[in-house]
Amino acid sequence: MIPKDYPTVSYPEVPLNREIEINSIITLFYFEYAKDYVFHGEAHNFWEFLYVDKGKAEVMADAEGYELEQGEMIFHKPNEFHSIWADGKTAPNLIVVSFICRSPAMKFFENKILKVDQEGKDLLAKIIRERSDCFSDPLDKRVHADRIRPDRPFASQQLISLYLEMLLITLIRNNTAIENSARVSSSTRHRVEEDLVNRIIAYMNENLDKNLSIDDFCRKFCLGRTRIKDLFKEKVGISIIQHYRYLKIERAKQLIREERYNFT
């Protein structure tokens, strides 16, 4: 029994700052993609990084094309258009992780390509291992909250978050950034832009019976108004809406020639 006159000591608490905090994950892939693999692109309001574990990968980030080598990682900031191409020669092994993080320190990763050292590779391996132990989804599929393994190891979800936070902190501390200009690939940019314009034109032909606006094209292809207008004008020579109208007129002429329409 503690005596009534026993002194009590007050110890001050020291709050610990959390510079990087992962709120949730969206995707966590690891897969060997076909040597002719193409992901035409998207943009979304959360962070994503791609790590080349084997082979090479061609990546489009907004208006620039890059060729990444084994052991390199590129970050895509929220709302940045990005696409992935295999080089047609080697089947690449890629890790793709997308996640929600609102920490101001994430600004470090904007427009960054980094060389991942052994410490970072070890953390990536731990993330993939915990992902496999925690979720029943195959590694090439999106994770789902209702497919968490009932026999998962204790705190596996928390470890995914912690390892991911440790990876980001390690990358900032070690700062192994590569000059983006060293990985710029004009051929990648040209190929991706040609593919994008061809898909825009195909989308036009599929919707000639509608009245699509520039905003409809922006939403479909995850591009801003200025970007999509400048790109199309550069590649085709006329504006995107002018070309759409031209195709609609040509389709109408064809239908008239086939006597499916008349002038009355």
Tell me what the structure shows.
With 264 residues, this protein is an alpha+beta fold. It folds into two domains: 24-182, Jelly Rolls (Sandwich), CATH 2.60.120; 186-257, Arc Repressor Mutant, subunit A (Orthogonal Bundle). It is built from six helices and ten strands. It has a six-stranded antiparallel β-sheet, with no helix packed on it. A four-stranded antiparallel β-sheet has the order 2-7-4-5, covered by helices on one side. The longest helix has 21 residues, at 186-206.
What would you call the shape?
elongated
Q: What's the quaternary structure here?
A: single chain
Spatial separation of the terminal alpha carbons: 105 Å
| Number of β-strand runs | 10
Mean pLDDT reading: 89
CATH homologous superfamily assignment of the largest domain? Regulatory protein AraC
Poorly predicted segments? none
- Please give the count of helices: 6
The biggest sheet, with number of strands, parallel, antiparallel or mixed sense and barrel status, is:
6 strands, antiparallel
Order of helices and strands: EEEEEEEEEHHEHHHH
Mind telling me which CATH architecture of the largest domain this is?
Sandwich
| Percentage of residues in DSSP E strands | 15-25%
Main structural class: alpha+beta
CATH topology of the largest domain, what is it called? Answer: Jelly Rolls
Widest sheet, order of strands: 1-8-3-6-9-10
- Approximate helicity band: 25-40%
Give the CATH class of the largest domain: Mainly Beta
Q: How many structural domains in the coordinates?
A: 2
Give the radius of gyration.
25 Å
